[in-house]
Amino acid sequence: MKRGASEFDLIRRYFTRPAPSAALGVGDDAALLRVGRGMELAVSTDTLVSGTHFFPDADPFLLGHKTLAVNLSDLAAMGAQPRWALLSLSLPVADERWLERFSAGFFALAEQYGVELVGGDTTRGPINLCVTILGEVPQGAALRRDGAKTGDDVWVSGSLGSAALALAHKRGTVRLLPAEFASCAAALHQPVPRVALGLALRGVAHSAIDISDGLLADLGHILENSAAGAEIEFDALPVPDVLRALSSQGSGEMAQHCALAGGDDYELCFTAPVSRRTEVESISGRSSLPLARIGSIVAGGGCIVRAPDGSAIHLEKSGYDHFR
Domain 153-306: which topology? Predict the structure, then answer.
């Protein structure tokens, strides 16, 4: 580690990049941004805390990726085009090797999605990573949580449960073969934000949310905001083969937890009218992203998960909660 680097040296070295779409980027008291005519600004923020959201020995490159990815996922759920980000870091020491790897992972994903870093902060303390993400969406076109309608199909993208299963393996709750763990760990450490899907769903979906705390918890936010209920079929959930194998081997509760309440999936859950099924399937085909229809929005409230025999599945917890 090089000694003597100041906070501002570190910012210049690892986090100052050109931001051509901003009127003013990193280096002043605030950034100046130009929002397109007829557009609304979508803003979200997430904080990752060492020991809560990631292991202290996490690979800093992968951590840089995930720190931005979880924020991009929020904009994907709104159907917003990502534009800018602010990054605030709390670090116990100015470890330049760690910073080089972290910033490389962060900017690799930022460049992939056209995101410019326009500001932030650094301070000394336990490792905490906070990103504020900003994006644009045409006025009135944002996907929201309060738009689900009775009769809507409920859809999810990609696959559910891999990240939770990888975390369970690391905690010793379940044992996976090396190849099985490697496939699940990719979902845990390098989630793929579904930005293109969110953009494609504008004008098609009635509501949407990203699955960060678990399908039941996050779908529950849609139901609460839309004053609606839902029925979903457990067998319709898109889960990896290793999770289905666990269920058939007598670990059904573990499989149910990972798929329904494990969290860290960063897939999109959305509702759309039955009349748009063909369009949703077309979006899936064009993007080569599996989209699974898992149930329906119904009158009332709450969510019922049906087992193959028609009985209701009950879980002790519906998803992750920091204070429960």
Answer: Phosphoribosyl-aminoimidazole Synthetase; Chain A, domain 2 (3.90.650)
Burial 25-47 (b: 16+ CB within 10 A, else e): bbeeeebebeeeeebbebebebe
Name the token pair of 313: 């599945």
Residue 13 vs residues 17, 32, 104: alpha-carbon distances, Å: 9, 22, 12
CATH of domain 7-138: 3.30.1330.10
Specify whether the CB–CB gap between 200 and 289 falls below 8 A: no
Q: Express each pLDDT in 14-65 by its tens digit.
A: 666 677 777 666 766 677 888 889 999 999 999 999 888 888 889 999 999 9
Contact 79, 199 (CB under 8 A): yes
pTM for the full predicted model: 0.90
Vertex 68 angle, CA 62 and 74, to 5° = 130
Max CA distance (Å), the chain? 66
Q: Distance between CA atoms of 95 and 53, rounded to whole angstroms? A: 20
And the tokens for 84?
């800018």
Give the residue among 293, 282, 200 at the shortest CA–CA distance from 238.
293
**Where do the structural domains in the chain lie, given as residue ranges?**
7-138, 153-306
